[in-house]
Write a structure and sequence with these properties.
Layout lengths: L56 H4 L13 E5 L11 E2 L1 H6 L9 E5 L9 E4 L1 E2 L1 H9 L3 E4 L1
Parallel strand pairs: 1-3, 2-4, 3-5, 4-6
């Protein structure tokens, strides 16, 4: 097959609807726009969220609080999740990503104290709760802040 032998797939293109060209066009008189009203006028168009003059949803819903765009996002994992690693392993953010305990684009990880730790691990993450740090050290491991 050559480029000059290519043909369009039937139905892939349609001719533009020629509005306002009289009765013979099949869209005579009101040109397919109905009678009067906002959509029958020239230049009609509505911004996103326009509800025909009704109070739009984004203005009806009460606004509360504040979203700090500069806030650091932290991912929390539990001490019990660390049992997934081998005894004596070093657990850092890269190891947590590889073990699928946190997502790929995670930088800040905090270890919380839910559950028990049965293995001696060296954990290197951004933050710990006091109880989580105590549990890691009680199991014979180290809790290092990076």
């Amino acid at each position: 097959m050559k480029l000059n032998e290519l043909t369009k797939v039937p139905g892939s293109t349609t001719e533009a609807k020629r509005i306002g060209r009289g009765h013979g066009s099949g869209n005579g008189k009101t040109a397919g726009k109905g009678h009067k009203g906002q959509k029958a006028r020239a230049g009609h168009g509505f911004r996103p969220g326009f509800e025909g003059g009704q109070m739009p949803l984004q203005r009806r819903i009460p606004k509360r609080g504040f979203n700090n765009i500069f806030a650091e996002k932290w991912t929390a994992i539990n001490v019990a999740d660390l049992n997934k690693f081998e005894d004596g392993a070093t657990v850092d953010v890269a190891a947590l990503i590889e073990a699928r305990l946190v997502r790929r684009n995670t930088q800040n990880v905090k270890v919380l104290s839910n559950g028990e730790l049965t293995k001696k691990l060296t954990v290197q993450v951004g933050a710990y709760s006091e109880a989580a740090k105590a549990k890691i050290e009680a199991a014979g491991g180290k809790a290092e802040v990076i």
